[in-house]
Write a structure and sequence with these properties.
Strands 6-7-8-3-9-10 form a six-stranded mixed sheet, with helices on both faces. Helix content is 41%, strand content 23%. The protein has a domain of 184 residues: Rossmann fold. By secondary structure, the chain is α/β, with parallel strands linked by helices. The chain is globular. α3 runs antiparallel to α4, α3 runs parallel beside α5 and α5 packs parallel to α6.
Length: 264
């Protein structure tokens, strides 16, 4: 059974249809890369999966449970949306760390806030908070930042900030980890630093959706690749098909332009 099934997701902003009937599935432990030109709808799709935007049509099923059905008004309730977001961890392009908090505090913040809603929080506050902090330290260590726990974002390089953002997304133990162009704000050296962490996550069979412009990386880590153009799925399949031997003319043109730019 797939860990994620997305069926017929569409999204409009005003009269502009940004996503048009998007469907795909994702197996547990698999990495899916989403590629396409700027404006193709890739980021909007991730934002719909994380309910930062609410889809206009379609369904989203996680672990066999339908967590969103656009035809059901209850799916759109604020409380329901908050709970749905816990299935997904999102890593943004530009880190989005809180500048007033240290690396450790950025990673523990969401867990601390959610813990306060637990019925046993008042009686178990010290134990619960210690557990959250211990977990955050272990995750920061796993992304190579054990020596940076007390550093503020301005004291970290871009690559280090993005690794804190990855640790923050992992801290709530989401079913699916989502990346929105995680290296677009980084120079080549720092890009490699972040891609190594994502590759290690793939090796550990972390279930991931990665919006990326790094084609060689997508070929390396992906079980499947989804190519989007103008809000639709143009081609979907293994990387050796979609990237190495695309079948659709729109995919071929996109990749030709990409590799021309890479070689110039």
């Amino acid at each position: 059974m797939p860990i994620l099934e997305v069926r017929n997701i569409s999204k409009c902003f005003g009269n502009t249809e940004v996503l048009k009937d998007i469907s795909f599935s994702l197996e547990k432990g698999e990495s899916l890369s989403i590629i396409g030109s700027s404006g193709s709808g890739k980021t909007t799709l991730l934002r719909c999966l994380n309910f930062l935007e609410v889809p206009d049509t379609g369904t989203i099923t996680v672990n066999g449970n339908m967590i969103f059905d656009a035809s059901d008004p209850e799916s759109r309730s604020e409380k329901g949306i908050r709970e749905k977001r816990l299935h997904f961890g999102l890593v943004f392009q530009s880190f989005n760390l809180f500048p007033q908090y240290t690396a450790l505090e950025n990673v523990t913040l969401a867990g601390m806030l959610l813990a306060k809603e637990r019925p046993d929080y008042k009686s178990e506050k010290i134990r619960i908070n210690e557990q959250i902090i211990t977990n955050a330290k272990e995750i920061l260590d796993s992304v190579g930042l054990s020596g940076k726990l007390d550093n503020y974002p301005h004291q970290l390089s871009g690559g280090q900030q993005q690794r804190v953002a990855i640790a923050r997304a992992l801290a709530l133990n989401p079913d699916i980890l989502c990346f929105d162009e995680p290296t677009s704000a980084l120079d080549p050296e720092l890009t490699g630093e972040v891609l190594r962490v994502i590759r290690e996550l793939a090796d550990r069979k972390t279930t991931m959706i990665i919006v990326t412009h790094e084609m060689s990386f997508a070929r390396m880590v992906s079980g499947n690749v989804l190519f989007m153009d103008e809000g639709v799925t143009v081609e979907y399949g293994p990387p050796e098909q979609v990237i190495a031997h695309p079948r659709e003319e729109r995919t071929k043109r996109f990749l030709e332009r990409y590799f021309e730019n890479e070689n110039n």
